[in-house]
Amino acid sequence: MKKMLLILGILLTSVYPASAIDCGSFQCPQNPYDSGVSISNITGMNFFSEKIANIILTRQIKKDSEGKYKVNLQSYNLSALKSGKFKSLEITGENTVTDGIYASFIHLKTICDYNYIEVNNKLKTTTFKENFGMAYAVTFTEDDLNNTMNNSVYGEMIRKVNSIGNTYKLFNIVSSSAKITGNKLFYIMNISVPLLNIKKDIIVQTDMKVRNGEIILDDANVVTENFKFDVNKLAMIINYLNPLEFSMNLFDNKYADMQVKEININNNKVNVSGIITIDKDVVTPQ
Fold first, then answer.
1. Averaged confidence pLDDT in the chain
2. DSSP 174-221
3. The pTM is what?
């Protein structure tokens, strides 16, 4: 299935206005449109075109992603919209599932006030005719993380860790889960230790921080009593199996640069926000 970027196709687009987002070296294109009113605005054709576009885009999103979506496209005029030029586009999703990744809330919004994305249905390509940027915000609950960790791809990651552990007969991860309580994240691994012939839950409390645009689980602290484990090795394992970083694959795409700017836990929900940018002249398959 397509990732979120390709699901949106000809569009794309947070809770935060552009002025509140650190976009680094990203620069918005110059806006060729003024505030004048076009004929299509006067006749109401632009309004109806926006409504039709919103319906079409919502249907397209739902082909590849489950959940409740709301799309709000703002265009300059009818001719501009037909050519792929638009002012802004905002997408809100609730209780979404995309490629086995669960999220309770997703909000995307274009950063710039002029966006130009050309769609060629004959060649089945999408060309970003100008630099394109969007801000995003996503919320994960405890249930979201646990449902995502049941993903077959995540299971394959656990099997890779087990292949290393089994080689040295150190451990085998039977299952894993997440717990969020008191606005703290706990990572739980049920492991078996062949040498000791035991099976036990390892409960690790970990902090979260952003490093180089990625989510890092930091300061791992084993809270399981009467169990000793090399914390450094444990931190490496947990970061490899990091369910939050895995969940952010929702926005992963080789044509785009995604950066996490902020992460926090509030009301026992993990909130992540950041930006996604795509360079001018990038061509993607539909």
1. 78
2. EEEEEEEETTEEEEEEEEEETTTTEEEEEEEEEEEEEETTEEEEEEEE
3. 0.81
Which residue from 90, 233, 114, 214 is spatially nearest to 171, judged by alpha carbons? 233
User: Do residues 244 and 215 make contact, with C-beta atoms less than 8 angstroms apart?
Assistant: yes
Question: Around Cβ 140, how many Cβ atoms within 10 Å?
Answer: 26
Query: In which band, very low, low, confident or very high, does the pLDDT at 226 lie, cut at 50, 70 and 90?
Result: low
From first CA to last CA, the distance across the chain in angstroms is 12
* pLDDT, mean of residues 90-95: 93
DSSP 12-54: ----S-GGGS--TT--PPP----SPPPHHHHHTHHHHHHHHHH
At 166, phi and psi to the nearest 5?
A: -70, -30
CB 58 within 8 A of CB 69: yes
For position 116, what pLDDT does the model report?
93
